[in-house]
């Protein structure tokens, strides 16, 4: 694992230590030559302690990669201590778009840590009120699913290259509205959030740099669009959580977490 990747992982975990079901996808490098094989790192948060943990291969429900409108195969991922590393070969110039969806995982959260969790995911007051209204003994059992996405610039893409603007079909997905591999410090990064392929209005997103703990928090408009500045060089992570109540024997809550990792020069 590169030093830059380690730094990013540590920063991301520090921001969301209460969200033990998070996962993110990041290439070993964000630019490659045609024909290169890259390792894609898929790593999860390690619970309340904030340690990095490997995601078990059987939790990966779907992998998808696209370059120049064509699908790319993923190689097998040998597990190591802290990350799954998927090899992907990028055969031609363009912008590679890569995504992963995990299987649902039920987690029971400690009641004393619910407020910190809700702050971490920027949940609205209605969820605090709903939790406060629960009769004792209160339980928070949550089924969480993660949808992770990233990009790689391969060679010199053609001027009409817009693979990056095409949704991968993830259940909850952040789609950039500018080339995510051409970002410079001070740019705004406009995105659109899709839930089931349709615009997710009123969805809270946070933009966070690997070198910062502060976040730019924005809310999508009626068409699912939002933007925030990327005002530091390096790796940035855009993320948001769709939290909802459910009626089930083994859980009271369900959530979908979407993450998008980009590099800013």
Structure description:
- The chain has one domain: Immunoglobulin-like (Sandwich).
- The protein contains three helices and 18 strands.
- The strands form three sheets. Strands 2, 5, 6, 8, 9, 10, 14, 15, 17 and 18 form a ten-stranded mixed sheet that branches.
Question: Which helices and strands appear, and what pairs or packs with what?
Answer:
Elements lengths: L2 H13 L7 E5 L3 E2 L3 E10 L6 E3 L5 E8 L2 E2 L12 E7 L3 E9 L2 E5 L4 H7 L4 H8 L7 E15 L17 E5 L10 E9 L2 E2 L4 E6 L5 E5 L5 E6 L3 E12 L7 E12 L1
Parallel strand pairs: 2-10, 10-18
Antiparallel strand pairs: 1-3, 3-4, 3-7, 5-6, 5-8, 8-10, 9-10, 11-12, 12-13, 12-16, 14-15, 14-17, 17-18
What number of domains? 1
The gyration radius over C-alpha positions equals 18 Å
β-strand amount: over 45%
Strand tally: 18
User: Which fold name corresponds to the CATH topology?
Assistant: Immunoglobulin-like
- Tell me the helix content: 10-25%
Mean pLDDT: 87
> What would the principal axes of the Cα set say about the shape?
globular
CATH superfamily: Immunoglobulins
Number of helices: 3
Low-confidence stretches: 1-20, 46-51
Measured between the Cα atoms of the first and last residue, the distance is 21 Å
| Largest sheet data | 10 strands, mixed
User: What is the CATH level 1 assignment?
Assistant: Mainly Beta
